[in-house]
Specification:
Largest sheet: 2 strands, antiparallel
Order of helices and strands: HEEHHHHHHHHHHHHH
Structural class: mainly alpha
Distance between the termini: 54 Å
Number of strands: 2
Shape: globular
Helix content: over 70%
Radius of gyration: 19 Å
Number of helices: 14
Length: 293
């Protein structure tokens, strides 16, 4: 097992360097513009294809095809970008993301049961985390490390159970150095693949309740790490004055295109003002914020 873990980390690191160089070269040549952004003087996106490949190669065959399905749809999202569709009110990339989540639920249900839904929803907080250099990596390393620690605390020394969180941790460690330096971005293919693999690791540790608990811890940690950025976003973009930590938590939990689409379906054009102090502290202003009101 340890040999496989080591090989996965090395593969992730080598592939990261290869895709960094390749996407940078392609981007500077003006091709596949969605994979190269002008941020920080030019940064390759979707380098997360490197850990994605390492995960599906080394992850147990019972679960690798679930990560493969989500990662493939996420890569299409990265390649296509923000192209609008006339027939439905979503971007084409978002459509592929939604299809990927649906595939995770369908393919994962025989092994995970209803927990496959929550595993699919892991992509929301990880996508929010991957908005500044190193933040998503910090979450992945911390949460996979926490699962390993929980196994040790529970005195469960079955090394087979350690494999999935150790794989996620080592694959991320192989990818992370350039991300922390701001030279690369995971893209959707990276953060979505890690999200599913991390969700599976949570489930394998203790079933549905462990998944729910560690999912919420993940959201809390992301909200804490990104609190300063989230404060600026909520105040300037959503006009939420003096946002609370609850607002940060709810933004990580329910923000983004999918959350806004659900709000549009549920609330239509209604705006629900929140005046209760307790609900404000719990973040209900962000939870009920409707951009279509």
């Amino acid at each position: 097992m340890l040999v496989e873990i080591l090989e996965a980390g090395i593969l992730s690191a080598v592939l990261t360097l290869i895709f960094y160089s390749l996407i940078r070269k392609i981007g500077r040549a003006g091709k596949f513009k969605n994979l190269y952004t002008s941020v920080r003087g030019g940064t390759p996106r979707a380098v997360g294809i490197a850990p994605f490949l390492a995960l599906i190669i080394f992850l147990s065959t019972d679960y690798s095809y679930i990560v493969a399905a989500m990662g493939t749809m996420a890569l299409l999202d990265d390649l296509i970008g923000r192209k609008k569709l006339k027939i439905i009110p979503v971007e084409l990339g978002q459509l592929f993301r939604g299809l990927g989540m649906l595939l995770v639920i369908i393919l994962g249900y025989p092994l995970l049961g209803p927990s496959s839904i929550l595993v699919a929803l892991m992509i929301q907080p990880l996508n929010i985390a991957d908005m500044q250099p190193g933040s998503a990596c910090s979450i992945i390393l911390s949460m996979s490390g926490l699962v390993i620690l929980l196994y040790l605390i529970s005195r469960n020394f079955n090394t087979i159970l350690y494999f999935t969180p150790m794989l996620v941790l080592v694959v991320c460690a192989g990818y992370a150095p350039l991300d922390y330096k701001g030279k690369i971005m995971m893209g959707e293919v990276g953060n979505h693949s890690f999200a599913i693999a991390l969700g599976i690791a949570f489930f394998l540790f203790g079933g549905l309740w462990a998944l729910i608990s560690l999912f919420l811890v993940t959201v809390f940690l992301i909200a804490f790490i990104r609190r300063k950025n989230l404060q600026v976003f909520l105040e300037t973009k959503l006009r939420i004055e003096n946002p609370t930590f609850g607002d940060y938590f709810m933004d990580v939990l329910s923000g983004g295109g999918l959350g806004d689409l659900l709000r549009k379906i549920i609330l239509n054009k209604r705006e629900i003002p929140v005046k209760n102090e307790i609900l404000i502290r719990l973040g209900f202003r962000r939870l009920l914020y409707n951009p279509y009101s």
